[in-house]
Specification:
By secondary structure, the protein is an alpha/beta fold. Helix content is about 30%, strand content about 20%. α2 runs parallel beside α10 and α2 packs parallel to α12. The two termini are about 25 Å apart.
């Protein structure tokens, strides 16, 4: 039996891979390299746009637990990530190009996945997974809108990337917060005066025109740094410029504020400015970010950009298996469903692929437990009790309480992780 998957991003490749492993012939449609979205540049599958990090890898965090659950499900993208990772303390970060190349190689080598280069412009009639991402092309977006309505737009932003050789290492130091992992981040400490001058310049800097968009509706998980700075004097110091867990070697003290740089590729020749998603004009980015100690002569290989993000009103449209209610085995996966984040998108692709395969085989899809993050995310995006729906990333707050007291957040998260993995193994 042949099934269709639209989109070869993180969710699409996982859905295609899950279906192929279960014996289905898959037609995987990808419009690149014939056509690119405003934010995509690389021809390979599973291109990472916003960051090269998949976040924390330890079980005492939601991001780490989600990855552990995905490994139980046979995640293709996590296998590729392990082979292409770069040093990032306790996080799993990858060389973007190498990661995309590895995913592309694995998908193209699968014997029952047929790659079709071209744009999907019509809503599939049946037996399909739509995983076209937050930048779904206009034609398909309109087809989806006509079919089910409930589409919303919000803004997403990507952080700039600079060359390593342009960093003034005399003004920086390498360390991970609280000593976790190795000295994997380059830290740019600011004193109070430097911070105040930087913030003043940031909140008054010119922003790029949003030509095709209407009213901005920023999502908290990818807030432009200039918007965050306008929320108050210390908003940055509690966000992407937080100084906690760090000590400046030259002073032996914690910095007043701190900007971090994370390796963008395995060779360490490029670094992204962590959390500095932005819509500033390119010249303004160079001027304002050049006020950060160590970045005065930074060479930008990619400036931050702003782009459209489209997602469904899931609680009104989707069931807990990511299937469109009332459709004949048409599923959605990825950020278009309202899950937020790389691994969340990939996980939804696995679940949608598994559920479609089960239905076509005449079986009931796996009932992912609500005590696991996979199940909790699927339930959130399909929960009819949710009023004003906004995207959601993996977090421990999605999980039901343990039912017994545990001292310390880290210990409590550890117990939640144990329960999640135990319960998930019980249904697989």
């Amino acid at each position: 039996m042949t099934v269709t998957v639209a989109g070869a991003g993180l969710a699409g490749v996982e859905a295609a891979y899950a279906l192929s492993r279960r014996g289905f012939d898959v037609k995987l449609y990808e419009m690149k390299p014939l056509k690119y979205s405003p934010a995509h540049k690389y021809p390979g599958f599973a291109e990472l746009v916003c960051s090269n990090s998949f976040k924390a890898d330890g079980l005492s965090s939601a991001a780490g637990l989600l990855k552990a659950e995905m490994r139980l499900l046979g995640s293709l993208t996590l296998e590729a990530a392990e082979l292409t990772r770069v040093m990032a303390g306790g996080a799993l970060a990858v060389d973007r190009a190498a990661f995309s190349d590895e995913v592309t190689r694995r998908v193209k080598s699968a014997p029952n996945i047929e790659i079709i280069e071209g744009e999907v412009t019509e809503f599939p009639r049946k037996n399909a997974v739509i995983a076209t991402g937050p930048l779904t092309s206009d034609a398909l977006a309109e087809a989806i809108r006509e079919k089910c309505g409930g589409l919303l737009n919000f803004y997403d932003a990507a952080a700039p990337v600079i060359t390593a050789e342009s960093i003034d290492f005399e003004k920086t130091f390498t360390a991970s917060r609280y000593g976790k992992g190795g000295a994997d981040y380059i830290n740019c400490p600011l004193d109070e005066g430097e911070y105040e001058a930087f913030r003043d310049a940031l909140i008054t800097a010119g922003t790029a025109p949003l030509r095709e968009f209407d009213k901005p509706n920023y999502y908290e998980g990818c807030m432009p740094v200039e918007i965050l700075a306008k929320r108050g004097r210390d908003a940055l110091r509690f966000g992407c410029m937080k100084p906690v867990g760090l000590t400046v070697p030259k002073t032996g003290r914690r910095p007043f504020a701190n900007a971090q740089l994370r390796a963008e590729n395995a060779g360490g020749s490029m670094y992204n400015i962590v959390g500095f998603q932005t819509n500033l004009k390119f010249g303004e980015q160079k001027r304002v970010f050049g006020m950060i100690p160590g970045l005065e002569n930074a060479e930008f290989v990619r400036y931050g950009v702003m782009h459209r993000n489209t997602f469904l009103d899931g609680p009104r449209l989707l069931d807990a298996n990511f299937a469109l209610r009332g459709a004949e085995n048409v599923f959605f996966a990825g950020q278009i469903t309202g899950v937020e984040g790389y691994m969340e998108s990939a996980a939804s692709g696995i679940m949608a692929g598994m559920a479609l395969a089960a239905r076509l085989l005449g079986k009931e899809p796996v009932a992912f437990p609500e005590t696991a993050l996979t199940g909790a995310l699927a339930r959130y995006v399909s929960d009819k009790s949710v009023g004003v729906f906004q995207p959601m990333g993996a977090n421990m707050g999605l999980l039901p309480p343990l039912g017994f007291a545990v001292k310390g957040k880290r210990e409590r998260y550890g117990e939640l992780a144990k329960r999640a993995l135990r319960d998930l193994k019980g249904v697989l």
